[in-house]
Prior knowledge:
By secondary structure, this protein is mostly beta strands. It folds into three domains: 3-13 and 185-342, Immunoglobulin-like; 50-176, Sandwich (Immunoglobulin-like); 369-500, Immunoglobulin-like (Sandwich). The strands form seven sheets. It has a seven-stranded mixed beta sheet, with no helix packed on it.
Amino acid sequence: MKRRDFLRQGLGITSGLMAATQAPFAFAKSDASGFSNSISQRNDFNLPAIEEGQTVRGKQVFKLTLQQGQTRILADTTTETIGINQNFLAPVLRMKKGQTVKMEVTNKLDEIAALHWHGMVLPATEDGGPHQAIEPNTTWIAEWKVLNEPSTLFYHSHTHNQTGQQVWRGLGGQMQIVDEDRDADLGIPHQYGIDDYPVILMDRAFEETGEFYYNNSRMDKMQGMHGDVMLVNGVPNSVLKPKKTLVRLRLHNASNARFYHLEFSDNRPFQLIATDGGLLEKPTKLRQIRLAPAERAEILVDLSDRKPITLKSIKGYGNLSRGMMGGNNASHLDQDFDLLHLDSSQSEQSSAFKRTQLVTFPDWSKVQVAKTRLMKLEMQMGPRMMFGSGGFTINGQAMDMNVINEVTHANTFEIWELQNPSTMHHPFHIHNTQFRVLDRDGKAPYPWEHGFKDTVTVHSKETVRILFPTGPYKNNNTPYMYHCHILEHEDAGMMGQFTVV
Length: 501
């Protein structure tokens, strides 16, 4: 049996994280409950455990263990996985602005790893990038004061040349900076597991044995690793039964390379209230939103009509549809997917959300720009790429641990002009900052890009300008990273290093 046929036939799925519920099979049609269902068995929504740390001498201490395990994802088989404090994936880390956090990260894997705090403003030595590698059976300690605004962040492997495969196997999770009092004053749902839910989106591919399929071939490296099994919080085809009819979904693209074009099955509107770096100034009414790898968005969904709905991803957005040379690719991996079903039939009625103003952004319109830099994201379509030896660069330079590509100055602002002459889209991420998107080819950014961001998609043949603060921390020797967040592109060389002095 071919791997593709196996996947299509073998998706009577459960997980070691949650027990499965029984449901009739209905391919690409609505079942008796009104849900669209293309997998034979629906599963209970997996609500990740919360880790808030322990208060020790005025610090919040988090003890995190990188570990190996086995997880039942496909029916009647187990998959070798890795995770943080569990067999697969990780708990949600919760903290507050102003706290000093101390991360004690112990590596119980049989390989080198690194753990990066994606979106955090923090000293370079605590960043968890490739320079903070953790050897097996050792503990790395990172400590910093949380300067970020309340927001939904991300923590994940950032091991040199191994990030893609380690994240694919499970080394990552969501991080939340929370302010329940502020949210209550604004009328924003904020009770974890009651009306506030993490929705961590990822795709995976499997071998016939049930093991993860991960291949660093030329094509998989170019397009990034994609799968045709969609998971939410590590579980496929799951049903969320929220406790309230107004819910906050913390959407989080944790896929290696898949771009999601999201909408609900009945095309209902929702309110976008936050992006990567926190709340927007005003809620934005949308019916669709796009998330590239590593992007997050917090949305409010009104379920008071009690109708069953499904969060879907629409085909055609991302690199699968572009093909190797930018043409059409009819791959089975590029299709419409059902991601998460919502059943509000037993939910308690919530008050409607009526706020029109959330926060006030600092005025950056007249800041002095210390420097404007060009970042050209390139894929060399010559022999180096064809034979798997490279070809992924920024400004013509592939990642070199011994090269500092750029030097910035603390407490200044810079504009980076991101150019993408390649045939693929690239989500561009900068460590240690939250930036604003100025424009796309001179035009206004998308409606879901009006807040603070740490990752932005630069489409093929497009130029995007961003304005960002360099932050308060100085270090002449230890760099931060900037890179494409298609993890296979990052591992292949589309990454650079900068210091803040």
